[in-house]
Amino acid sequence: MASLFFWCSPTTTAIAPVASQAPKLPSEIVGKNVEQIIRDWNNELQDRTAKFRKHATAISEWDRRILQNRNVLIRLEAEVAKVVETQTSLERQLELIETHQKEVDKALQSMEEEAERVFQDERLLLREDEAASARDTMGRHRREDSRAAAAARDERGT
């Protein structure tokens, strides 16, 4: 098929015919009839459709897994929040216990110091009592010894 192109120039009024070339056919359809071309295109369409479905199925599976994992992550996030809250509460309780323990330790130290002081005071009193008792015993022994010596003298002298 030939087409004519008319070109007009402002200075000339002549019309010149220009022949155009027919469009070049793609190499995959050269030498084939319409039925073969349609069959090839249908085969290619089926192949591409099968690949598309395969990819769509894979993407759908990935999407399902992503949603499952998202739900798992949301549950984990909630559990982590509970754990953090519990940990914070336990830390506060531990601080309270440590404070009580320090107070008990101070009270115990005070009681130990008081017990040690009382023990020292009692030991001094006990030593004083023992010393007084020893003096009394020694004094009694001396008196008894003096009486015995006096009685022995009296017996000798009589």
UniProtKB/TrEMBL annotation:
Pfam families documented for this protein: Nsp1_C
GO biological process: mRNA transport; protein import into nucleus; RNA export from nucleus
Nucleoporin NSP1-like C-terminal domain sequence ranges: 25-122
Compartments where located: Nucleus, Nuclear pore complex
GO molecular function: phospholipid binding; structural constituent of nuclear pore
Recorded GO CC terms: nuclear pore central transport channel
Chief place where the protein resides: nucleus
Cross-referenced Gene3D superfamilies: 1.20.5.170
Family: Belongs to the nucleoporin NSP1/NUP62 family.
UniProt name for this protein: Nucleoporin NSP1-like C-terminal domain-containing protein
Organism of derivation: Oryza punctata (Red rice)
